Amino acid sequence: MKGVTHQPLTMASFSALLLVLPVALACSPQKADYVVVSCFPNTIIANVPECPYGWELEQLSLGGVCYTGIHSPGYYRFIIPDLTPKNHSYCGTQSEYMPGKDPKYIFYNSIVSNDTSLTVRNQPVNYTFSCMYRAAYLVNNAVFSQRVATVYVNNGSLGTFRSQLSMNVFTNSKFLYAKDAPYIIDTSEIGSEVFIGIEAKGLSNRFKVVINNCWATPTPYPTDRKRWSLIINSCPADNTVTVFDNAKDSHSTFKFNSFRFQRLEKVSTVWLHCEVQICDGERLVCEPSPCSSRSLTEVDLSGGILTAEFQIKAGRSSSNKGQIPGTSLFMLLLVLMNVCCDLKKFETVSM
After folding, report:
1. d(CA 305, CA 325)
2. pLDDT value at position 223?
3. Which residues sit opposite 197 in a β-bridge?
4. For 279-331, how does the pLDDT look when each residue is reduced to its tens digit (9 = 90+)?
5. If you average pLDDT over every residue of the chain, what do you get?
6. pLDDT in tens, 23-60
């Protein structure tokens, strides 16, 4: 049997082979004509559907400057983390001051495509978005109205909607009646149940409110290292916390037992922080997996943060007998939550 002669692979034959082989796409192009924007206190989060018109994450930038997008399930996420006046220009963010009796700041930015190759085969994209905040809300670390955020979709195939995402304290487990702010806890009530609700009013039914994490601090800063965890990865941090509903519809609820920080003054203030996000139930599985199968290890935050302020006071009934000697009360770490308040009862972030 004669040997088989192998012919060398020429450049022409190699090019012909490339024409025959299928080209693997890095991502599946989607018609993505909308952006979901969450205007949280001091943070703006913009989400566009992943692979919009074929663009990959590394080809999209915030303000044409920062390639800082994050690939979250079903979406590309871009975050403006600081809205304080000293940092208005973060990644091309533009701001406009509107004077008047109630002065406001409007922040503008956009998510744009950028292809440096010789030919462009995808439809260019430019997702422009904005958020409006009261000026007093952004200066001097004001925290009085950080229980409310605004979530909206700007036109597109989903239509247009605007929702107020708010966090509230309720009277009982039926979650029918919200308490008025400011929230005051008598020292004699430490250990009692506190009911928290986070709700998005006006949100399309396809979107769900998800509580990721909640914790309390003795300062208004969510990053304070002195903290007490209540909810970790959507699961109760201990048996004093109960999550009733989460990621099922436009509101999520939970309760915890009130507590205090020691060595504090008579009138103390505690801040509850909740990290929340809005999930598209038609594109994603929003409900977390059972807590028994997940770790309570804290992870980096990916949602926006809502903050509620609680004051702890020693009432007349608890000022004398039988109370803890020497100190009059401490701080109650209540709920740091991301979402649920009745707009009629809170100062809102206006859009």
Report:
1. 37
2. 87
3. 168, 253
4. 988 888 999 988 876 666 666 667 889 999 888 877 644 444 444 333 332 33
5. 77
6. 445 688 888 888 999 999 878 999 999 999 999 999 99
Position 221 scores a pLDDT of 83
Confidence grade of residue 265 (pLDDT, cut at 50, 70, 90)? low
Task: Give the contacts of 213 (CB within 8 A, at least 6 positions apart).
Answer: 229, 231, 232, 233, 234, 274, 275, 298, 301
Class of domain 168-351: mainly beta
What is the rounded distance in angstroms from the CA atom of residue 213 to the CA atom of residue 346?
22
DSSP secondary-structure letter at 90? G
DSSP string, 184-231: EEEGGGTTSEEEEEEEEET--TTEEEEEEEEEEESSS-TT-SS-EEEE
Residues in the chain: 351
- Ranges in the chain annotated CATH 2.60.40.3210: 26-142
| Bridge partners, 79 (sequence order) | 45
How many other CB atoms are there within 10 angstroms of residue 242's CB atom?
Answer: 14
For tokens 């994209």, name the residue.
Answer: 125
Where, residue-wise, is CATH 2.60.40.4100 in the chain?
Answer: 168-351
CATH of 26-142, one of 2.60.40.3210, 2.60.40.1930, 3.40.50.300, 3.30.360.10: 2.60.40.3210
Q: Are 214 and 335 within 8 A, CB to CB? A: yes
190 to each of 52, 193, 248, 316, 322, how far by Cα in Å?
Answer: 51, 9, 31, 15, 14
